[in-house]
Write a structure and sequence with these properties.
It contains 18 helices and no strands. By secondary structure, it is mainly alpha-helical. Helix 1 packs antiparallel against helix 6. The two termini are 21 Å apart.
Length: 444
């Protein structure tokens, strides 16, 4: 386990630790670059992979085509839990380095694939890569900034990641147009992976000492708080704490909405007569508003609290989906996509921030892992559930189902979620009033 000394940092005993974005801007910038490279890695397949199902393997089934998203989601969700827990003991940087290694077989399997099952297995490796790398990158940023400015930090992280996703998709699209569906996009992925591993190895520092410093200086832990068992932590996050229950279900539903955009929007709009170029632009509007808006929404949540952006953003996602469904023209469809993107920008990063607010630094990585388990389970459940509805009752029915689920999620948030921002919270985190839920020491 990485150790921290009260007189200095875990890496250099002569250095005194400080929390905050300004005090740690260089390491924050390094981890932001890493997040962008993580996003580029997954972005390389979003343009190149779906057409491969039909062109290389003759697959026409919607459910079978979107199965790679479900496989990715299952593994990413489970590995989020594992990586978050391990990082509280072993540190963030080692887990991040291991995550880069799993991206290599992902690229090689798709390059060499002889059937669609190879692609599904490749996405299992990609799920591990994304869980280990992205979870550690955002946790490291939260470690560095401490309680102040946490919303802005997470907003920058998620914005950098989704800008990377867009860049990866754009460059992959250019490569596909010039060199075909394979192997060029996945050679790009391997180059990005090598760059990410090099930056992590040469420039990134372990940030667990910052979390331990926060625990000692902000929470007054002496001796340090014992970590709860994984089972108790999962129970606490999933149902004991009403606010974390609300956050976890909202994360799952959030990915329902995103998987609907990835899997069903192109098919729906092509069926409504929109050409492929405009479909790509519409999906791009959704992604750009979401990606770039997260910096502003994170800063906003630091000023006004987390509950309003999270709850309001989830309502906006449902409103945007409804606008698209009732619209009969391209202008309304683009407005709906922009409203969805704005809702995602408000809700997505601040759900992570709410977990960071509520968790003790000693088990923050594990708490984020549990949340991300529930969140990315939406990638596994969403395509299969909505694909089943589409197979039975049509594409519009699947999209209305998704909109209804998102609206109900917003209602749950409105009722159950308590404000978590340290500057605005009325109630302390539930574990402080009920330490027995985590077997935490009294007075922790």
């Amino acid at each position: 386990m990485v150790q921290w000394s009260p007189d200095g940092a875990g890496v250099d005993p002569k250095e005194r630790l400080r929390l905050g974005l300004g005090a740690n801007w260089l390491q924050f910038a390094v981890y932001t670059l890493i997040t962008m490279l993580i996003g580029i890695t997954i972005g390389t397949e979003r343009v190149a992979l779906p057409p491969l199902a039909r062109q290389a393997f003759g697959i026409t089934s919607i459910l079978y085509t979107v199965s790679f998203i479900a496989a990715f989601g299952v593994v990413k969700a489970l590995m989020n839990l594992v990586s978050g827990r391990l990082s509280d003991n072993r540190g963030r940087r080692m887990i991040l380095l291991a995550g880069w290694a799993f991206a290599v077989p992902f690229a090689l399997l798709i390059i060499l694939a002889r059937s669609w099952w190879w692609v599904i297995v490749a996405n299992l490796f990609l799920g591990v890569n994304q869980a280990l790398t992205w979870t550690m990158a955002v946790t490291a940023k939260i470690d560095l900034v401490g309680p102040s400015g946490r919303g802005l930090a997470v907003g920058i992280d998620e914005s950098a990641g989704y800008v990377g996703v867009g860049l990866g998709g754009f460059v992959a699209g250019l490569l596909v147009s010039h060199y075909g569906l394979r192997p060029a996009p996945y050679i790009l992925a391997m180059v990005i992976v090598a760059a990410g591993a090099a930056v992590t190895l040469l420039a990134a520092r372990e940030t667990l000492p910052w979390a331990q410093y926060e625990a000692a200086r902000v929470h007054g832990d002496s001796p340090p708080q014992a970590q709860p068992s994984l089972g108790r932590l999962a129970a606490y996050m999933s149902w004991r704490d009403r606010s974390m229950l609300a956050v976890c279900q909202a994360g799952t539903v959030n990915k329902f909405a995103d998987s609907l955009v990835a899997a069903f929007f192109p098919l729906y709009f092509l069926k409504r007569g929109m050409d492929l170029a405009h479909v790509g632009l519409l999906v791009g509007v959704y992604a750009w508003v979401w990606g770039l808006g997260q910096v502003l929404s994170g800063a906003l949540a630091d000023r006004i609290g987390r509950k309003l952006p999270i709850t309001g953003g989830t309502f906006l996602i449902a409103l945007g989906m409804g606008t698209i469904l009732v619209g009969s023209s391209g202008s309304l469809w683009f407005i709906g996509a922009a409203v969805m993107g704005a809702g995602m920008a408000l809700a997505y990063p601040n759900l992570i921030t709410a977990v960071g607010d509520s968790a003790h630094p000693a088990w923050r990585g594990g708490a984020l892992g549990v949340y991300r388990l529930w969140r990315d389970a939406g990638y596994a459940i969403g395509p299969l559930l909505l694909g089943g509805v589409a197979a039975l009752w049509g594409m519009a029915a699947a999209m209305w189902t998704g909109a209804a689920i998102v609206f109900l999620s917003a209602m749950v948030l409105a009722v159950l979620l308590r404000e978590t921002s340290p500057a605005h919270a009325v109630h302390p985190p539930a574990w402080q009033d009920h330490p027995d839920w985590l077997r935490a020491p009294r007075g922790a």
